[in-house]
Design brief:
About 50% of the residues are buried. The chain starts with a strand and ends with a helix. It is of the alpha/beta class. It has two domains: about 120 residues, Isopropylmalate Dehydrogenase (3-Layer(aba) Sandwich); about 180 residues, Isopropylmalate Dehydrogenase. It is built from 13 helices and eleven strands.
Length: about 350
């Protein structure tokens, strides 16, 4: 299936220029990609003029309004038919596009996408999933990262199924290892929903995942597990803590290397290693969070992403379309549908 990606050209910190440049980079890597840019037609045409190869594979859908960074989800929903974000998601619903990518307001994008696309049958709530860097060659899939502050066991089981399907597509794992984020690895630790989800996953058979119990937050980046499942509150806190720690380490190294002449000489000697560290921690290399569970593919690019980050988000969207993420999730849900509600949901 040739992917046609709807791009909310007005979202993000920079907007049209970087969204078009990122799409151009993705198009350079994948000549079969097609695009529908949604936003201010005049500005999009001006940006496309710098990328003739992209222009030939693109159409423009003019949108009169944008969703501001501080807009409330309810406000974004009311105006969705006129905004670039709302119209990009609507293009997925109508079949004009096979996926949508936006760097705009996360809460608004989730609200608009959920109302327009609904969820896959068998999924109660969509979850925000992203790839986080690890010490291993592959990143870890983690969800939910903020879409659902409170979750019951049934939600967590569904997140495990969705996260495993995502990992299988991105990395080709036959049975990705899955763990629930918890305050300890012992069987008796954790809240009722976490314990209920663990019990349900242990009882399920035939799933394309390897449930391995619990993982603590200090092991998120070790690479010992392929998929980490948690509620949106804990996931968002963990994500922000990891991002803060990464900035702390890089800023501390920079300050240390500039503290004296000897340190500056040491920096020159160790520069290849520090460049490798910076590259590994660069969020643009892991850009493209996915709203899993929707009846359509929607990818959230980081608002501060550069053209490389936008290209990565576009490639994630296309990969999920090409490898039928919706079908894979539906197939795996059928294998846990026999679980009684009392087993899949917390009391």
């Amino acid at each position: 299936m040739r992917p046609r990606i709807a791009i909310d050209a007005m979202g993000g910190d920079v907007g049209v220029r970087v969204m078009v440049a990122g799409a151009a980079l993705a198009r350079h890597r994948h000549e079969d990609f097609q695009f529908l840019f949604v936003g201010d037609e005049t500005r999009i045409k001006a940006a496309l003029a710098n990328h003739p190869n992209l222009s030939a594979a693109s159409e423009i859908l003019h949108a009169e309004e944008i969703v501001s960074a501080d807009a409330k989800p309810s406000q974004a929903l009311r105006n969705s038919k006129k905004t670039s974000m709302g119209m990009a998601v609507a293009a997925v619903k109508s079949g004009e596009a096979s996926a949508a990518v936006s760097a705009g307001n996360t809460g608004a994008l989730m609200a608009i996408s959920k109302l327009a696309l609904r969820t896959i049958p068998g999924i109660d709530r969509p979850a925000l999933a992203a790839l986080l860097p690890t010490m291993k060659d592959s990143d870890v899939v983690m969800l939910d990262l903020g879409a659902n502050a409170e979750c019951d066991s049934r939600n967590l089981v569904q997140f495990a199924v969705m996260g495993a399907a995502y990992s299988r597509i991105i990395y080709g794992f036959e049975k990705p290892s899955v763990k629930l984020l918890n305050i300890g690895t012992e069987d008796g630790k954790g809240t009722g929903p976490v314990q209920g989800a663990a019990d349900a996953l242990r009882k399920a058979s035939g799933l394309a995942l390897d449930f391995q119990g619990f993982v603590e937050a200090d092991k998120i980046s070790t690479g010992e597990v392929d998929v980490i499942v948690t509620d949106g509150f804990s996931g968002n806190v963990a994500l922000k803590a990891l991002e803060g720690a990464a900035r702390f380490v890089t800023d501390l190294l920079k300050r240390s290397f500039l503290s004296s002449l000897r340190s500056k000489i040491g920096f020159l000697i160790s520069r290849p290693a520090t460049e490798l560290l910076r590259e590994h921690l660069d969020p643009n290399n892991h850009n493209g969070a996915v709203f899993l569970g929707l009846n359509g593919v929607v990818v959230k690019s980081h608002g501060s992403a550069d053209e490389k980050g936008v290209a990565n988000a576009v490639e994630v969207a296309a990969r999920l379309v090409e490898d039928s993420i919706l079908g894979r999730i539906s197939e795996d849900l059928d294998k846990v549908s026999s679980l009684a509600p009392s087993e899949a949901a917390s009391k």
